[in-house]
Design a protein that fits this description.
By secondary structure, this protein is mostly beta strands. The chain folds into two domains: about 5-70, no CATH class; about 75-169, no CATH class. The chain is about 0% helix and about 35% strand. It has no helices and eight strands. The protein has strands at about 5-10, 15-20, 50-55, 65-70, 75-85, 115-125, 140, 140-145. Strand 1 and strand 2 (about 15-20) form a beta hairpin. The radius of gyration is 31 Å and the shape is rod-shaped. The termini are far apart.
Amino acid sequence: GQEKLSCNPRKENGSHVVVCELGNPMKAGAQITVDMELSVSGLEDMGDAITFHLQLRSKNSPSPTNASVTVPVEAQAEMELRGNSFPATTVLPMSWHPVEGSRRLEDHGIKVEHVYQLHNKGPSTVSGVTLHLTVPSQLGGRILFYLLELGTEGGMSCTHPPDLNPEQV
């Protein structure tokens, strides 16, 4: 039959140990299968595997039986990209032309601000995330978006595109 084991976690010699009582007394020749579910936190910097050392001790046996189980570690995190444009809708005039050589924003078009937010929905933490964002600056040989500036918040760094504010507006 299936039974739930009574297990007790404790620390021994700087290691975390879980001691489970399997049976006392146990009949000679008995075979037991144990399925264990372990929940371990803080594995982000553990590498790609974690090893569990198992030891079976019996009062009738002079030496314990040792085994090791190596389990691959895979961090999982769900990322979500959100974006908004301000204003939400823009209607461009059909016959508008930029004023050459002008440094005034109004002479280069209608200002549209795009804000993107990258959220980690967990369950693990993430690092070294790269977001490639491509914005079309021209369409049919004409300027579609004039990329004026790029800013970040929250300890991120960005690589500025080569066509960022070429007229120094």
